[in-house]
Amino acid sequence: MMEPRPPAQAGDAHAEPPLLRAGGETREGGGPGSDAPVVVEVDDVHKQYHTSGHVVHALRGVSLSIRRGTFAAIMGASGSGKSTLLHLLGGLTPATRGRIVIEGHDLARMSDRQRTLFRRRRMGVIFQDYNLLSTLTAAENVALPHLVDGNAARRSAERVGELLALVHLSHRAEHRPDAMSGGEQQRVAIARALLNDPAIVLADEPTGNLDSTQSFEIWRLMQRVAHEQGKTIVMVTHEAAGAAFADRVIVIKDGVAVGELHPKGSGDAALVATGYQELAG
Questions:
Q1: Within 13 Å and on the Cβ side, how many CA atoms surround 132?
Q2: 178-182 long-range contacts, Cβ below 8 Å, gap at least 24?
Q3: Which of 56, 121, 178, 253 lies at 20 to 30 Å from 195 by C-alpha?
Q4: How far apart are CA 103 and CA 40, in angstroms?
Q5: Domain covering 36-280 assigned CATH 3.40.50.300 in the classification
């Protein structure tokens, strides 16, 4: 297998400037330290669906943990269970057996309302098709979670401005989605996912509708958000090129986590593609 290339360092000619954290601090380097707190715990999780008299075993005893500041990718073929796992992490559907704990909260012990509030306030979600409201500007789309949660628009304005600057879209604040490219729309969606300072960001094939150049920008942005802002990002993808920007790649096959790759954010797609074939082929 190929040796991974190290990510760009602060002194490199093509390195991007560090992202600001709370209080104006920055964090150098990639990936979490071994002492970073665990944000995601999945313990022997099974998921079964009953359809037309048949039982479909979507997940078969998956266990894993993910620390704060990790960019983790989940790879697997269609029907492998990767999207099911993402839905369970988001509390959108319950596990048949096992435990899912996010930031110390056992999702199974919450009521439907508690899960909804927890998802709204402590989780961010990035969809493949952006899910922006066509009648709202970029700034209004980013602010939407605050408005849904009852916060006044004026209290959101400063935070929205910071996030649009973060994703390099300050100049697009008053543009509606139909005036923006797909990559710009997805960057608006990333800013929206970060509005409530979530414990975890879930990304479902976030570059599925983008070309290779736009995809690279999105993967690099998510990597930087994880490493420099300490966000835990879990991305479902079938693209080795995208998974190569993650710290860890969890490979799912037939509802089982069959192994992991550790590209450490190198961007080395060949490394991930070869390792994936060895684990899932």
A1: 29
A2: 178/134, 180/138, 181/214, 182/130, 182/209, 182/210, 182/211, 182/214
A3: 178
A4: 6
A5: yes
Q: What is the pLDDT along the chain (281 residues), one digit of tens a residue?
A: 333 333 333 333 334 433 433 333 323 345 777 789 999 999 999 999 998 888 999 999 999 999 999 999 999 999 999 999 999 999 999 999 999 999 999 999 999 999 999 999 999 999 999 999 999 999 999 999 887 776 666 678 889 999 999 999 999 999 999 999 999 999 999 999 999 999 999 999 999 999 999 999 999 999 999 999 999 999 999 999 999 999 999 999 999 999 999 999 999 999 999 999 999 98
Q: Which residues contact 68 (CB under 8 A, 6 or more apart)?
A: 32, 36, 37, 38, 39, 230, 232
Domain boundaries, the chain: 36-280
Between the CA of residue 227 and those of 48, 68, 70, 121, what are the distances in Å? Answer: 35, 9, 7, 21
Global pTM value? 0.86
Residue type (1 letter), 206: P
Residue showing tokens 């920008």: 217
